[in-house]
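Record 1 of the preview.
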Amino acid sequence: MKNGNSWNYPGYRVAMVKSEVFGTRPSLLKPILVDLPDITLFTDLWLITAIEKINPDPLSRYLLIKECLSREEFFQTDLNLLQPFLKKSVPHWLIHLDDGKVLLEWEETPYEEVTEDELVNRIIRETGCRLKPGKGKGSAQASPFSRFFRDKMGGGFSLTDIDYLAV
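->
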């Protein structure tokens, strides 16, 4: 039965999902997932896809990014835990952006520091895409990678956020 803006089911609390503004909505699921034993929870994942008009090859148009919001997180994250859950054709990178500098690690390669422009060029090469003027606007409330992507990558790509991956 309906009660105001929510439905009532015995034993459950069900309500309307509130609007999200650039990742500011608090998560009800994260505290539950974090407390589960024997899993590693990956958050702040991004799937980059070259648009099909530019690169129609599904074996080369995707790239998974794990964004680390601190240097400490970057050095504590084991990127190899993702490998069993991804197709071999989907490369996966670990990054941390900080004031125009980027820490970058991919698969079994040791990390290196690159510039944002170098990161743009590597994403283009990895996905077989090209820069196209974009219309997306970044928000100060968005994550560093989301802002970087909106500001630098243009309209040849799509960017999808993945809230959680439990392994």
